[in-house]
Write a structure and sequence with these properties.
The protein has 4 helices and 9 strands, in the order E-E-H-E-E-E-H-E-E-H-E-H-E. With 175 residues, the protein is α+β, with helices and mostly antiparallel strands. The protein has one domain: Electron Transport, Fmn-binding Protein, Chain A (Pnp Oxidase, Chain A). Strands 1, 2, 3, 4, 5, 6, 7, 8 and 9 form a 9-stranded mixed sheet that branches. The longest helix has 13 residues. It is elongated.
């Protein structure tokens, strides 16, 4: 881990176990991520995906439809980006990696939650359910490290001191 401080944000570079732990802390409690894939015409396609409530170990799992366009896009180019935001806690993270799709029934059953019936009315045995596995390779993050009141004071102090008060933490994570 290395750190540097640019006037308003402490910057960290993390990897290995420290990187996994930081990602786990940042995404904990965030229910939706935006998944971005590369469309057939080379443009980016983004859509919301429900996040599994499990500790991060380098891999993220999602349930989706095997007939969805994202499955075709991932078959053509496995590179994806996941974007997470929790404005009330001032947490923002972007993860990059490679995605693969399968219909591993055992893993689908393991991840199944009754809330998914909203998307899969036939339940966990719906033949259109696909499993999306994302192997994360790196990420970037920014977060404020204090309560809103403390952050307000920090912002005001930074404004009055020409930006010398750190107001948050940012960094890069190599997984």
């Amino acid at each position: 881990m290395s750190e540097k401080n640019d006037n308003d944000t402490q910057y960290k570079e993390l990897s290995g176990e420290a990187g996994h732990k930081k990602i786990s802390e940042l995404i904990k409690g965030i229910r939706i991520a935006m998944l971005t894939t590369i469309a057939a015409d080379g443009t980016m396609s983004s859509r919301p995906m429900a996040i599994q409530d499990e500790p991060f170990d380098g891999t993220l799992w999602f349930l989706t439809r095997s007939s969805s366009e994202k499955i075709d896009e991932i078959a053509q180019d496995q590179h994806i980006t996941l974007t997470f935001a929790e404005p009330k806690d001032s947490k923002y993270i972007t993860l990059k990696g490679r995605a693969t799709a399968s219909q591993d029934r055992a893993k689908i059953k393991e991840l199944w939650n009754p809330i998914y019936k909203a998307w899969f009315p036939k339940g966990e045995d719906d033949p259109d359910i696909a499993l999306l596995r994302v192997n994360v390779s790196e990420g970037d993050f920014w977060e404020a490290s204090s309560s809103k009141l403390v952050m307000t004071v920090k912002y005001l102090t930074a404004a009055m001191t020409g930006g010398t008060m750190p107001v948050g933490e940012a960094g890069h994570i190599a997984v």
